[in-house]
Amino acid sequence: MDTKRHVIGVDEAGRGPLAGPVVAGAVVLCKPRPSGLDDSKKLSRIRRGELEAVIKRRCRWAVGVVEVDEIDRLNIFGATMLAMTRAVLSLCEALGEEPGEVLVDGNLTPHGRREEWRWKARAIVGGDAIEPCISAASIIAKEHRDRLMRDLALAHPHYGWERNAGYGTSEHLAALRRHGATPHHRRSFAPVAQLQLLV
After folding, report:
1. Given CA atoms 25, 106, 22, 45 in this order, what sign does their dihedral have?
2. Under 8 Å CB-to-CB from 194, ≥6 apart: which residues?
3. Across all residues in the chain, what is the average pLDDT?
4. What is the pLDDT of residues 114-145, one digit of tens each?
5. How far apart are CA 143 and CA 49, in angstroms?
6. C-alpha span between 190 and 77 (Å, rounded)
7. Cα→Cα distances 12→16, 98, 105, 170, Å
8. Which of 8, 34, 121, 152 meets the CB 3.0–4.6 Å disulfide criterion with 111?
9. Which one, of 94, 96, 97, 70, lies nearest residue 81 by Cα?
10. Angle between helical axes of 132-155 and 45-58 (0-180°, round to 10)
C-alpha cells in the first residue's frame, strides 16, 4: 500500500433501531490523533461529544445517511453498505483524492456489494475498539444519528427517541402500540410490521 495515501476508517450507527435512518461515519485521522478514542458505545455521552468536536475540528470526516424508505427497500444490511459507500464517497470528494485503504468495522465491507465502491477495503471485527480511525468514525456516526433522532423526537414526542434513539425499548414499543407507526418507522422491521398487520 502507498503509505502516502490516506487510510479512511468507517463505522455505522443505527442498524438495530425500529425508527430513523442508518448513518455511517468516515474519518481520516489527523496527526497527532485525538487522545481517548474508543468504541463510541463505551464512551459517555459527554466524552463522545467532546471527541466529536475535536475530530470535526482537526480531522477530515464525512457522513452517509440512508433514510427509512431506502432501508425498507434494500433491507438493513444493504442500507448499511450504502451508508458506508456514501460516507466514503463524500470524504473522497472533500479530500480531492482516493484513499490507500478503507478500514471497516465488522466482518464484511461494501466491496462487491455496492457497484459504486471502488476502494481497497479491509473488514476488522471489533475495529471500533482497536483501530483509532474506526473509533473516530463510530463517534461521528453515533453523534450524528443521535442528533437526528433528538430532532425527530421534537415532532414525534411520544416515542422517547431523544432517550432511546429509536431502539425497541419497552417505552418505544408501548408508544408504538398506542400511537401507531410514524413515517420514520421501519416498516420492514418485525415489531412495526406486526403492528401494521393488526391495524
Report:
1. negative
2. none
3. 94
4. 999 999 999 999 999 999 999 999 999 999 99
5. 7
6. 15
7. 11, 21, 8, 24
8. 121
9. 70
10. 110
